[in-house]
Amino acid sequence: MAYNDDEQAKLKKSNAQAAIEFAISGRWKEAAEANQAILEIFSNDLEALNRLGRAQMELGEYEEARKAYTRSRDLDPYNSIADRNLKRLEVLMASGVRPTRGDGQGVPAQAFIEEIGKAGVAVLSKLAAREVLARVDAGDNVSLRPGPGVLFVDSLNGEYLGVVDTRTALRLLKLMKGGNRYSATVVSSDDNKLAIMIREIYQHPSQAGQISFPARLSATAARKPDLDDSLADEEEVDHSVEGTEKPAVADGEAFAEDDEDNDDDDDDDDDDELEV
């Protein structure tokens, strides 16, 4: 069936909205179909290609995802989303790792909403090796593991991912010792940067009046999250962090000392931001 220009524009808009909603709710097959419907009419649509690649990656269709992202990068050589995900796919395909989330498991919108005082974003340091980071993605739940003066972040499979910045970690460790509980969700991930949303899910009565994420922490440690690669545009990150094996808890003191030595540089570390 032939469509005029207005009809094509309406179809593109409705399918794009549907594709994003399907992705958020984890309906990856339907998300892929919605993006393919756009590409049948607009074969060079970069956003649809990026979203299609993401959906196919979540479904474990790595070769098809690679084709979508390659097409996207060919059309725009400066497409950081496609470039980063092609690198991630290279690691996943080489390691034989399958998706950690299947169809029906999406990116919960609430996970990306930063509540004043109750939630904050932390960009991790001391990152794990890139093959480990390739196994986590935006929307994945992660666990917080207290150590002496350090707050480790692990995947739900127990793999070490990185550490929370010292200033935020020391405050949260004190509140956790007092009975507070926190959840954590990945909001942005690539092979050299990992950001998580930490959310207070229970405040112990003894901690009443104690704010988990005061404004000064938000200004120095937190960055605004983006809705991941294919759901929103983002700037390319151009800095490297050396991978590290999962450390013993006893190493936490050394980690804390290293970070405290660099506290004065925290605000000037880098200019890249995570944007909604």
From TrEMBL:
Coiled coil: none annotated. TPR repeats lie at residues 46-79. Residues 224-276 are annotated as: Disordered. Keywords: Repeat, TPR repeat. Residues 228-237, 254-276 have a biased composition (Acidic residues). It comes from the Bacteria. It holds the Pfam family TPR_2. This is Tetratricopeptide repeat protein. It comes from Candidatus Dehalogenimonas loeffleri.
